[in-house]
């Protein structure tokens, strides 16, 4: 029996690495027209994370390492193409001689109107991959927002694009009464003002009156919503064991991308992918909440396996004894697809 209907994960998510040239260049080889592209300069000091999506439009940048409002950057990502995207001279996305990482997701273009919630939203959705981009005008009051997934979101990342509020994060691993901020190292906190103490449904997610999830009606909100898809994506939690023979996290696929955050104390967010090292153990995180360069510390050693990932460190940042962690992960290959070909560890 097939484990998943998604045999080729790179039809929906793909990491693309490239070298900056300080001029305009088209980045190809993504494998599809991306609708959400997250770009980070790996080598230049102080260059932040640049996030673009097809709903807000090209040149409209927000940064996960900053509370800054959306800005129009004519020299940033200037076009989405059928196999990638085009970048200009901005050093954050195309610094001359710099190594650049981009993570790309496929939704469904500029989106369409969704009236499932109490506030009408614009939704670009890929139900096969369990990913949607959602835009709406904030109300600064309890409300529901249609997300279009047809499945319950397990993680939501949200930003007011017109103001300097934090990035609100909902994750099933901490529940509907708590939240995290993507742009900070802060531990989980409790408040009803972000998610109205309400778990998302297959049609809507709930927001309160916080600026991080639903600010005033003159402001536009953007959310990136994710549902579990067997063999392709997983949004879970684990407990650290404080041992160099570290915790194994089962995802049901060979991961292509993992983002991790310890929730019970102050700790960086960390992202890994299957391209930047290409072998086990891998240890090259980038940090969504910071403009830091890529690290190569042994504190981040882990193995990417055919069915999950395993820490090879007792460092507290990833594997503190008794520490609580949440993660999001996307597949390089399913454990077994409809072709009944099993994935291999690398």
- Regions with pLDDT < 50 over 5+ consecutive residues? none
Oligomeric state as shown:
single chain
Helix content: under 10%
Main sheet specs: 8 strands, antiparallel
Question: What can you tell me about this protein's structure?
Answer:
This protein is mainly beta. The chain has three domains: 9-105; 112-226, no CATH class; 233-334, no CATH class. The chain is built from four helices and 26 strands. An eight-stranded antiparallel beta sheet has the order 10-11-12-19-14-15-16-17. The protein has a four-stranded antiparallel beta sheet with strand order 1-9-3-4. Strand 7 (77-81) and strand 8 (84-87) form a beta hairpin.
Features:
26 strands; 4-stranded antiparallel β-sheet; 346 residues; 8-stranded antiparallel β-sheet; globular; mainly beta
Q: What's the layout of helices and strands?
A:
Elements: E1 13-19, E2 25-28, E3 36-41, E4 49-53, E5 60-61, E6 71-72, E7 77-81, E8 84-87, H1 91-94, E9 99-105, E10 112-114, E11 121-126, E12 131-137, E13 143-146, E14 155-160, E15 168-171, E16 178-181, E17 189-190, H2 192-195, E18 204-207, H3 211-214, E19 220-226, E20 233-239, E21 248-250, E22 253-262, E23 269-273, E24 302-305, E25 308-311, H4 316-319, E26 324-334
Antiparallel strand pairs: 1-9, 2-8, 3-4, 3-9, 5-6, 7-8, 10-11, 11-12, 12-19, 13-18, 14-15, 14-19, 15-16, 16-17, 20-26, 21-25, 22-23, 22-26, 24-25
Q: What's the quick description here?
A:
The protein is mainly beta. Helices cover 5% and strands 38% of the residues. Strand 14 and strand 15 (168-171) form a beta hairpin.
